[in-house]
DNA sequence: CGCCTTTTTGACTTAACTCAAGAATGGTGG
DNA sequence: CCACCATTCTTGAGTTAAGTCAAAAAGGCG
């Protein structure tokens, strides 16, 4: 089976390596941005700390760091010691799971406001490999902080449960939506599911990624993913504005998705 | 696409219908078994209440009921009002998700000790349809009881988080294991994943289900599922002792699974 | 025992995989 | 700035696994 890409597991993990911008190839692994002021966080209402009150912040006795990553940067690898929960502040992250034979499958996408590595609160190693698809930032919250807040304030643990729930729902939808039906329908559903970004001229755009990643999300080969995207471009269902940036005809996509 | 079985959504839901054994066709929907004594529960160490202490039980102010179901009985349908969390005491339950076109996909199997319908603590309707594949029993815990215990004792909410985590892990494994690779490998992995039951002569047996359900778990057609099981029977990888009860050659299965 | 459902099998079609080569793209270094 | 290199993407041709439609066989139930 060549359905999924080979695992490259290249380079060092960003965890434990937060000391500054490390440039390798064209990839910036992690750049330290300082200690954020959670109370003033621009996306706090989306984030893990959404419900915290003034008093709760006093319970934080370890630094929360803000780190920024380039596309391709690895947040952590499966099996790495899990010492922090991350809150995504921008960009897009894939969670990858490896099979026995070295092939891989992308099990979820993480978007701004979502948490990454929640399992750190329960066990001492990460379950997936987390890789940035689009550059962005995370707040790195040491697991001791999460544990302490969770013990002391119900406001955090409601948020935690909500996040577990959200991840599970996403996992179920991922299975039914992106792993079911023919390849064309899967691509269409994926495109519909992707975040849209506003452009200068007002057209919503969705940013796509490598055909290999596409294949690993949908459980099809790179070539099949490529062929379908190419075909959609030719038929005008999607319209490439810049490299891998597409304006989508959502109605057409919906009908392709078999809805 | 005919990949998955048509949604029959037949019959009434067991929820709200706990007043006694309802026999329709050959299916017993639900039989009321009485109010269990949690403290003395035989599988309590597996169940949601594993960590509760004597004082905690005093917080339970609504009855927990014990209900038994036959194969094919529907615990609840997707969208039904979610008024209880269930703890599975025996048997096997499938969680089904429906797609826009009416086809279905089985997203998870629930085994004894696992909880069903945890989303009831967060929202007012169930996300899946839950159906018994093998007859068994559940304890039905009103959502108010779970909420109250969760507010009052950290011992429950650790169990709750653990269960969310376990479900998510299972979802991820389900995707990579049962929705990846060719049909033969998927069937092999499913068989390896199924619980084994001891028989009189000591051979571990695994109880299989309809080809339609098999297809809906693996994302293949009923015919493909049937063909592969038939082929495995012929080649001796599995050995049918009774109807849908198989002795498995696990080493052979592992090699088929592409491990 | 006969009816109905599920399973199995067959024949055919088609979607997706495989292998391979050529085109495009982006980065690198002269 | 441009030429070159390494990827990644696209496309083609051939193969194969899985889907489809249909009918026969097997099981289970009344």
From TrEMBL, chains A, B:
Residues 181-252 form the HTH crp-type domain. Pfam families: cNMP_binding, HTH_Crp_2. PROSITE patterns: CNMP_BINDING_3 (PS50042), HTH_CRP_2 (PS51063). Residues 1-20 are annotated as: Disordered. Keywords: DNA-binding, Transcription, Transcription regulation. One of its GO terms (molecular function) is DNA-binding transcription factor activity. CDD domains: CAP_ED (cd00038). Residues 48-130 form the Cyclic nucleotide-binding domain. The keyword DNA-binding applies. Transmembrane segments: none annotated. InterPro entries: cNMP-bd_dom, cNMP-bd_dom_sf, Env_Response_Regulators, HTH_CRP, RmlC-like_jellyroll, WH-like_DNA-bd_sf, WH_DNA-bd_sf. GO terms for cellular component: cytosol. This is Transcriptional regulator, Crp/Fnr family. The lineage of its organism: Bacteria, Pseudomonadati, Pseudomonadota, Alphaproteobacteria, Rhodospirillales.
